[in-house]
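Ligand: pyridoxal-5'-phosphate. Inputs:
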Amino acid sequence: MPRADSPYNSDVYGLDAMAQAKLAALAAKALLRTPVETARDGVWVERGGKRLLSFSCNDYLDLSHHPAVKQAAMDAIQRYGVGAGASRLVTGNHPLYAALEARLAALKGTEAAMVFGSGYLANVGIIATLIGANDVVFVDELAHNCILAGAAMSGAAAHTFRHNDCGHLADLLKAERGKHRHALIATDGVFSMDGDLAPLPALAALGDAHDAWLLADDAHGVGVVGGGRGSSFAFTPPPRVPLQMGTLSKAVGGYGGYLCASKPVIDLLKSRAASFVYSTGLPPATVAAASAALDIIAHAPAAVAKPLAKARLFTTALALAAAQTAGVPVVLGDIQKALAAAALLESEGFLVAAIRPPTVPQNTARLRVTFSAAHDDADILRLADVIKTRVLSA
Ligand SMILES: *Cc1c(COP(=O)(O)O)cnc(C)c1O
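Predicted complex:
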């Protein structure tokens, strides 16, 4: 209730009324979202006083809880404190960045790399800097929201192509490419809500043929596919992807975004990407943790292979198409059906997120099941059994 004596009585401005009307409209469509307090310890979480086994986490290698990663973060806090203090171009570029960027460039086989505050900030910064009003961008229709946001911010003409449909992209390139100066093709390397891979060799060939730069967002690829090097390395030979973007917040276990590319591209973005220039550097502990985690990814091929193997155990048990990555969608269509399935699984001790529009297209509400190296095979089979007998047959 607005307070009568408050100068901020929002009735005057209609702000609360606007918010309440929008909330009611969302609630009527079962599209209201509320963060639920969840304490997490690896694959186990506590929610509403109940312990649940989580299949809803992108920490695929459980590196957020790895002793060496935690120790690296603690050492960095002791030495450098908790905050960066300013943008990296001012005083926020503490010494740990050079090591992390060198590791990223080595992982992806590029000349240079740069770290952003998050994956979201990376994509909006990269895309809006590399292309502008006279240019054109082609985006897969299921690409992550931050790619679409970057495309909108860039002011370039934007076209979406049907998901993983290179024929459709080729048609669009033929019709539109010639009208513009520069062109960018932007896609997820691993699609976050579908768990499939982009056909990067074919996209790279189209980029070559039509003079268009290819950006692949590897948020869910690094640490999981291509021996841990990410989606480009899931193919032999790896296609030439000049802009390899990703995040440190999923398999790497911490926080931050990155781009691996040539030195001139990285140097340009360090000078001009607004989300880099005008945003504070990451906390030193976060940078140190990411370096330690990447070190583990580079040297623990057996651990890196696990999330995909666990996902395949699940898809085999349910006779679904074999998992390509550590995330598997169980598409149910109807929003209420997805919410009911998530509630049922919770009552069985599992946390599996129901994903609704607009995160996924209309009528494709789903369970998104993600696998971690830390999951027990027996638990995966029990989850598959509950989904088979009580969700899919319902
Ligand atoms: C999670 C995600 C991002 C955003 O990364 P953050 O570091 O969480 O901001 C970008 N792209 C894709 C495909 C993602 O799944």
